[in-house]
Amino acid sequence: MTFFSNIWRNEKSREIIVQIIVLFFLGWFISWLVMNVNANFEALGKDISFEFLFIPAGYDINQYLIDYDSRDSHLRAGIVGLLNTGLVAFFGIILATVLGIALGIIRLSKNWLASKIAYWYVEFTRNVPILLHILLWHGIIINTLPHPRKAISLGDVTFLSNRGFYIPKPLAESGIELVYLFLVVAVIFSILFAKYCKKKQDLTGIQYPVFLINFSVICFLPLIAFFLSGMPVSLEIPALKGFNFRGGMHMSPELAALTFALGIYTAAFIAEIVRAGILAIDKGQREAAESIGLKPSKVMNLVILPQARRVIIPPLTSQYLNLTKNSSLAIAIGYMDLVATLGGISLNQTGREMETMLIVMLIYLSVSLSISALMNWYNSKVKLVGR
Amino acid sequence: MSEKTYKPGNYPDLPPPPGTVGVYGWVRQNLFSSISNSLLTIISVVLLYYLIDGIIGWFFLDAVFDAESKIACRKIDDGACWAVITRRVGQFVYGFYPELERWRIDITFLTMFLAFAPLLYPDIPKRKWLLYFSAFYPFFAFVLIMGGYFGLQKIEYSLFGGFMLTVILGVCGIVCSLPLGILLALGRQSNLTVVRTLSVCFIEFMRGVPLITLLFVASSMLNYFLPPGTNFSILVRVIIMFTFFSAAYIAEVIRGGIQAIPKGQYEAADALGMNYWQKTRFITLPQALKISIPGIVNTFIGLYKDTTLVVVIGLLDPLGIGRAALADTKWNGLSTETYLFVALFFFVSCFAMSRYSLWLENKLNTDKK
Prior knowledge:
The complex is a heterodimer.
Chain A (H helix, E strand, L loop, with lengths): L1 H8 L1 H34 L29 H34 L4 H15 L3 H15 L7 E3 L3 E4 L2 E4 L1 E4 L3 H29 L5 H19 L4 E4 L2 E3 L2 E3 L2 E3 L1 H27 L3 H9 L4 H31 L11 H13 L2 H30 L5
Chain B lengths: L21 H9 L4 H27 L8 H7 L6 H4 L2 H6 L7 H19 L6 H20 L15 H27 L4 H16 L2 H11 L12 H26 L3 H9 L4 H31 L11 H10 L7 H30 L5
């Protein structure tokens, strides 16, 4: 008796006992689940196999980045879906970032009216579910934009209609290689130049307008090449044929609605993050920068933003992740993303819930975890180092 | 400039310089302090003018509040056609709950405020008695909503819908996920390797996958993991998934709070000879929860908003009711009206929650008084 009570009183041995008990229950629980699955599958005559991935999918996808038709396999349908998820996440993130940063800065502006408008925008947007945003935008595009025959045209090259947006598609012709070459040269030059300027500034304190020079180099070098090689790009302009437009680049109503909804919704959160990040910088930093005579733009660029960035970037990334995960709601309006293809139609056609959901979850999980890992690495890199 | 000398102690109070006080001063400082600022003001005013003009016209002046169908609406006026809402408002609120039994929902909902009041407002009079009611409330609500006892008619889960379903899912999820979230946060900070690993795995998994995939699991796969023949309502399965999902987020918020507590607090507790549970109960949690209130409420708001996702697996929350209404040929195409109405409901409830969190934060903020 005393032996057991001694073991229980000793912290180390008690910890081990508790962990063994937890492990035991965990093992029991998992084997219970596996047994249930086995029994259920046996009763239904099912098994677990991933062979279905290689049989023809047999359904169409209206928006794809790589070639796809209904004779392709479920695996390829899943990849098309994954790329569609990436596509909408990419556009959504750009929209959300631009809008969010602008709103965050307006929210801090001294102008009372503008800051109040930004405040109410943020409150209205983030207190309404994202699914509602998506359905609302989809409804607006489908129900209030005109038919293709009466499409709203912007300069006769871009058309907005309830079948989606049509914009001219640039087609590369021979001679385009020169433009690409100049672009690569310009990018390499800007990187080297930025490094050189940084070094120079560290050594002597002299500053060059790095951004301005690099920006104009990247813009103008390819442009010069473009004109030199005789403008080797032609535009394929969408034209009305029958009931719909042909040619040009097509953005389906679903993709447009999803991009707007995700961008506008996430922008509200990003605005708050940017605002909090700038407010988190000690007032003394700004005052000190002003008192040594820096211009307001330099106070912002050299003192406030580099410090605010450290506060802003981790939550910003988690918003990007949220946006990507929220894009799975595409299924509600029929945009064919990963969940709608592999986890939706493929699941229904093959009846393999276990396998498809496992794949879908693993893909999302690996994206999330790798981005979290990247963030941890970044955090440890930019962490304030005490000297 | 006139120069005058005053004897010490006889200086008169001078008025502030003109243009710095009063309405004029305020306008000058806040709206027209510089050229760019004035430009921003003018742009904002123009924007607001068009926005308010358009909204008031469409929402109220040109709107039709009752009509037979969309076509009848359009014949009367060209603004919003709210008839799609007014004709179906019962469904939007109660789903397909039998009309004669709807008083039960009303009572449950009204008494909910009474049950939550002592939990939300610590200064309320007669708090102790109300707390007894709060403890008893879940059973009361369950019996009243589900029926089947005391001569109340039994109502099937499948008839639940509308805002009532949103509130049921939201409140159940919120109430269940807080304790689970606290346990997970403690588990993640635990010294026991097994417990810590388990908590980390659970939290990272739940945070890594979209909620919608979890709901698919709940609706189509959960039965495989249970003994053959088990069958329980989809509503309960969905609530379990919501609880797990939001508990993982709450755990992360609370972990942030726990990590923010100065180390000296633990050392002092150890020096007093407290054991783990005493330390947790009296030192860690009161401080950690206080710091993490804004984050917890944000997670609750997120959960409440996410209840709309149940429409994807076929439950009839307000969005589901709205989509059913839009599928009716009479109301086809009135999506903006329908979704804006639902959006208004969510805005009001979520905004109220975030205001409450601000109030509580200020109340508990004892350092800065």
